[in-house]
């Protein structure tokens, strides 16, 4: 099951990720990401991987546990 995870020791609240995968990540009022916690479907994997690569703080990860 593929899911996005955030390393809170790294996230700086750039908010880039929410723009790339809006169905999976919202932003809170301070611009920090809120994961919806849903499974990333096969059709969404490429967008999720793009968001992981775009995170300037290397805080976003894709796990398949
Ligand atoms: S792009 Fe990275 S640093 Fe920015 S809010 Fe998303 S997870 Fe945090």
From TrEMBL:
Top-level taxon of origin: Bacteria
Name the UniProt record assigns to this protein: Ferredoxin
């Amino acid at each position: 099951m593929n899911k996005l995870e955030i390393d809170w020791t790294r996230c700086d609240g750039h908010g880039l990720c929410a723009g790339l995968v809006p169905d999976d990540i919202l932003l809170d009022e301070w611009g920090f990401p809120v994961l919806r916690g849903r499974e990333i479907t096969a059709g969404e994997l490429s967008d999720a991987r793009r968001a992981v690569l775009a995170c300037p703080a290397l805080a976003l990860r894709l796990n398949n546990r």
